[in-house]
Amino acid sequence: MRTGHSQSFAILVCSVTFSVSALAHDPGLSSAAITVGDRDIRAVALFHSRDLQQLIKNDAASYPSLVNQILHLRHGGESLPSKLESVEKDVNDNVRFQLSYIRPPVGAITVSSGIIGRLPFGHREFVTIRTASGESLGDRLLSAHENEFTVLIASAAKSRAGSGFADFFLLGIRHIITGYDHLLFLLGLLVVMRSFLSSLKIITCFTIAHSITLAAATFSLVEIPSRIVEPLIAASIVYVGVENLLRGDDPKGRRLLTFAFGLIHGFGFASVLREMGIGSRPGVVALPLFSFNLGVELGQIVIAVAALPIIWKLRARPVFIARWARPCSAVVVLLGGFWFVQRVWMN
Predict the structure, then answer these.
(1) CA count, 13 A, side-chain hemisphere, 318
(2) 326 and 208, same structural domain?
(3) Which of 164, 211, 245, 262 could form a Cys-Cys staple with 206, CB 3.0–4.6 A?
């Protein structure tokens, strides 16, 4: 009977870490910033190059071929012809399309993506529409199933704040639930915690730390390339697993360690918003940042509340400590090591 409970915990750990994707990240995020001027409409669409590879050949010269598919604008049931102003690739491997359209008369404009249905399943595109003076006409998180929205261009319409809050709140929950590297780091910390108080302190330190760097990175106060952040996140998982193996139950100094590594994980969370262009445009930061982080925290709390009773119940059984505690930490080390190698040498 005791062995059955121990095995159930091992299955829990493996199912959390191995399911869906070893990459431990969302399938894709992009953004489009649309500015409605007096004479024309200009748009800047930002994609990571990996999201476009299945649509084009592996050379930058193929990107212009996507110009008529990137962003569709319709007025009165007719499509507005797009003109490619420029296409460039930046140091973070993002491809930036600058498009222009002739501004139609007063009325409604319907915006949709022409390629989101052809990108990896689950891809999201954050679209914002503003006047030249910076007034918000609307924003929406598009997906393959919800791929258009309409705004009025006569004057600044009411911002879709409620919709934006819900979109980014759910995105935060989704990111932490599918962020297997972040979850494995947290579970690696909690598996050696003996009490509710010690677990609460660990979760609080992690929350405060990653909230700090999430905000700093989103506001572009601190910028660290993802090619550095992602391997460091994997290294933090390896470190926690090794420390569990060497120092055993409830090691001292965990709060400081958690805070330090939490700062690194915050940069990882920020990559989601940065890939969507949040922070690169004034006035489109506070709401997405707040609601996304709130979603991350809620998802994190739900997972901890579900996992901790199982961990504590199993830790009360000597057979778990003797047979399964160290193998679980070894799994943490192996998965963290796999992600580290993958992110350093295979990307």
Answers:
(1) 0
(2) yes
(3) 262
Q: How many domains does the chain have?
A: 2
Exposed/middle/buried for residue 290 (C-beta within 10 Å: 0-12, 13-18, 19+): middle
Q: Which of 210, 202, 207 is nearest to 266 (CA)?
A: 210
Q: Please tell me whether residues 142 and 186 are part of one structural domain.
A: no
Does residue 231 share a domain with residue 187? yes
Q: pLDDT tens digit string along 66-87?
A: 888 889 998 877 889 899 999 8
Question: What residue numbers bound the domain in which 263 lies?
Answer: 2-25+179-345
Say whether both 51 and 37 belong to one domain.
yes
Say how far apart CA 193 and CA 254 lie, in whole Å.
Answer: 10
Helix (H) or strand (E) holding 39, with range, is none
| Contact assessment for residue 231 and residue 264, using Cβ atoms and an 8 Å cutoff | no
The tokens for 159 are: 């911002």
Tell me if 219 sits within 8 A of 164, measured CB to CB: no
* Contact between 329 and 249 (Cβ < 8 Å): no
DSSP state of 29: E
Phi–psi pair at 274, nearest 5 degrees: -65, -40
Tell me the pLDDT tens digit for each residue of 191-211.
877 788 888 889 999 999 999
State how far Cα 41 lies from the chain centre.
29
3-state secondary structure of 37: coil
219 and 94 both lie in a single domain: no
Angle at 138 between CA 137 and CA 144, to 5 degrees: 145
Phi, psi of 225 (to 5 degrees): -60, 145
